Every structure is written in structure tokens, then in C-alpha cells.
Amino acid sequence: MTAIENGKPSWDDVHPYTVVRVLAARARGMVGRLRWLVPRRDTRKLAASERHFRSLIENALDTITVIEADGTIRYESPSVERVLGFRPEELLGRNVFEYVHPQDRPRVLQEFERLLTEPGRVQSMELRFRHISGTWRMMEVIGRNLLADPAVGGVVVNARDITERKAAEAQLLYDAFHDKLTGLPNRALFMDRLAQSMRRSRRDGHPRFAVLFLDADRFKLVNDSLGHSAGDRLLVQLAVRLEEAIRPGDTVARLGGDEFTILLEGITSLRAAERVAERIYQQLEAPFDLDGQEVFATVSIGVAAGHSRYEKPEELLRDADLAMYRAKSLGRARHEVFDRALHERALSALRTETELRHALQRGLMRLHYQPIVELRTGELKGFEALVRWRHPTRGLLHPGEFLPAAEESGLIVPLGWWVLEHALREVCRWREENGPDCPFVTVNLSARQFAQPELVHKVAEVMRRTETPGRLLKLELTESTVMDRPEEGAWTLGRLRELGIGLCIDDFGTGYSSLGYLHQFPVDTLKVDRSFVARLHREGPDSALVRTVVRLGRDLGLDVIAEGIETEEQHEALRSLGCGYGQGFHFSKPVPPRLARKMVRIGRSW
Q: Of 12, 83, 107, 445, which alpha carbon lies 20 to 30 A from 141's?
């Protein structure tokens, strides 16, 4: 039994639609018909409740509208003026669909017809409704079919303005799929569009798209010299020029950092994709203005054409990336087209890297030692430690077969420390078996190792642990490694020299011209590259270069070691030039530790 039926109405229980009935009835001049709703003695309470709910409606964020089956507005709540700018009386008698956005109107009419099919039915939708200013507001609408209710006889519509919420949602959606710095599509949107292109090509049976992967050349130099804000401005301007180089319908995206991608639609040939790359180079010919500082920028581009073999967008992007790295390795500011050989090399490098990690963990690396001989006397003076990999299926691998993968992956650093540790342990054995005057060992130091802040400390720690005096160790560095940052390199070499270690510049004459810095580096040995030694028997620039290096070393008080000596003729030529030391197959191939110990024990000479 309700509160009304038992004669004690509780106005807290009055349903809002009861008040809607009251308001609708008042608007129709039918107050007398309300007597069935409440007892006469409680008319004052009904009036108070009506005033309460009227206040709520007038100040609510929602509007309440009662419309007839043909869309005619019969009642409009006062809150409509605050929400849409119209006074309620301006809307009465008008058709509500006149105010619905033309693009939304067909859908809204269809939903309204569905609402009319069933008494009591509730329908919700979102639509654009005209504001009095002529702008459009996004409204969230809930309609209830009360046409069959004799006290209402219409469709009651609650509407809420959600324009700001929708704008915020749209902004969030935009931000989720666009790069904040350049405004370009980001990786997520690019991959979605690439996936759509792949699906279309599978339906049509004709892949007509291509992907360009771009990386800005020497972008780090801009950041380091002009600052990151200048780098950001360069990226923004670069994005603009890339968009100018493509056709409508193509997509330029920024993947992150200085990497961009372009999706070319409707490409009928690989040559068409290459022409886009050429247009990009033309767009980049003019300098970029970074707050008065002129900067020239180039990009390396990898091109991969759509093909039925691709199942996922990531595969096509990967291949374009591989082609880009190929272009960068061949000199930058150029483009390369992906071919299957690139993929095979990448798979091989990945496989090698994985196996190399396991080899380091499982103790599959080995050291061989190549004798270093005094050319004048033929006496054994030292060994160069050379790493080998005893591969479980491929046998004994030489450095050229795995060091590139180690460099690329960063494994060269732990591998380098492994070599130093085991080489010095071998020196300990030589000392124990033959006394303190045993041969020295040279160990190659990679560029990545040399750049480590803790280099000197770690070298000192290994020497302490293996009880190796500095005079029995030489560290070899390539000329380019030292010259990458000559001032910092000189400081690091000085700290190593304080440990008593010998320092050798390897491949001297093949990289930077470091003659101007050589006197600043505390090195004691220069190594003549094997490529010069191989042509030493001929008259020409190679003989002159070797003669110059030998004379330079002598004038600076440095030892000179020639590597790659394979013939007696080369041996004699180097000795006549005054070269002090040499190594190569003419004397001995690299040998395992057992044979090296034997050479030390018997005092082998040549």
C-alpha cells in the first residue's frame, strides 16, 4: 500500500515524474485532473513539493522537455535558458527536430520512431543541438515514452550538455594517436593505417603501398651543440618539410626521437617510392633556421614495398628500418631499398648475438696467442691475446665472425673484460713457470670499453687480482678510438699509464690523422697495419708510409710493431727500415695457451 493510499502521504517518496505530470498538467490548464493524484487536504504539501522540484529543475544542469508524438515541444524546463540560451516560451509549439543538427537528424528520427513503438520505453542517444548563438552543443539525451500516461501524454526528454566532456575525450583521443611535439601521427596511428592498407591489399590481391623509414643524420650533434630545444625546433621544421614532400592521402608519422615513417598509398612500383625519397632530399636542401642559427639536415631512408609475404605491419616496418640502417652505414643522406639479403643478415646477427650471450655464460670462449718477435734478433718478446669462440656446431670461430655482433649488441664490453682477465691469468702461469722476465701480453681494448668511466679502476682491479705487474701488459686501442675525443682520451691514457701499463695505438695510419696529437698521448708503441705490410715489397706510398711511421716512432722514442708479416721478404724489408717488432704467419699463427706456454718455456726464437 502506498503512502497516498493509506492516507499519510510522504512527499519524499513522490517520483520526479509525478512532478513532471504536475508541471505538464499546469502547462495544459488541467490542474483539476490532478485530484486523483493526492488527497485534497494535502494540496498545500503538493504545492510545496512542486516549488521544491521547480527550483531543482530551474537550477539543474539538465533540461526537461515534454514533446508530442510529432515532435512538437509542449513543455520546456526553465533550465534550458542557461544550457542553450533559449527562453522556454520561445521553444513551446516548435518542432524539436528543427534544432537537431542536420547530420544527426536522420539517426535521431529513427531512434525517436523506435521510442514511440512501445509505451514506457526508454531510449538514450547523443546528438548535436543548436544553441541560440548558432553554435552546436553536444547533448546526452534520455527519452521516456509516456504518451500512454493520461497525466503526461507525451515523451519526456532529459538532456545534458556534454560538449566540454566530448571535447576533452576528443583531445585525449587525439593525444593518444599524435606526437605532442610535431602534431604528426604517432606510432600507434601509423601502425593502424598500415594495417588497414595491408587488409585492403589482401582483399584486392594487389599490394599498392610502401613504407619509408627515415632517421635524421647526426641529429645528436644539434642537441649537443645547440641544446635540446633547438633539436626540438629542428624536428618540428623537418616534419613540415616531410609533409610538403608527400601527396594527399599519404601519412607522415613520428615514431620517436629523430625517427619518422611515411606510408605511401596507391604505389604501383618501387621506383615511385624512390621518387618520393628523392623529393624529400630536395625539400631538405635549404638550411633550417633555428633562431638565427642556420643548420643543414639530411636523412637516411629505408624503403620497403608492400608484399603478400607480410602478415603483420611490424614486419614491413622492421624491413624498412633495416634498409635505413643499411643506408646510414653506406654514408648517410641516401636511401636504400630492402631486399631479402638484409633480412637474412639481420636474422644471422640476432642469432649470433643470442648464441654469444650463451657462450659467455657457458664458458665457450677461448684465447689464442700470437707471438710478437723482435725483428733484429728473432727473440720472442710478447704475445697478442686473440679471442676465439668454440661454437658447438660451427667449430672454432675467429673474431671477424662474431665481433661485429658483439659491438652492435654491447656484448663487446663483458667480452673485453673476459679477455683481459683470462689473458692476465695466463701471464701468471708464465711467471710461475719461467720467472719474472716472461713475455708481455697485449690485449685489445674496444671503443665501448675505453668510454666507460670505471675503465681505469676495473683494469687496476684485474691486475691486482691476477698479481700482474704493469710492464707485462700492453693495451691496444685503434687510432679512431683515441681520436674520437682526444682530450678525454689523453686523460684516460694518462691514468692507465700511471698503472705501469704499456699503451699501443693499433692500425696507425688507417684512421684519423693523429700526428698532431701523438705527442700528447702517453703511448709507447705504434702498430703498422697489415694492409701496408702486405704491399711493402712494392715501391710506392705504402713503403713510404711504413718508413715514415718507423722513423716517427724512433724520433718519439716509441716501439713499432708491424702486423701481418707473412713472408721473409717482408721480414727483411721491415728490419732494414728499422722496425723493431713484428707478428704474423711468417713467425706463427695464433696458438692455444698450451703451445704458448711451451714457446715461453723453451725460449722460442725465429
A: 12
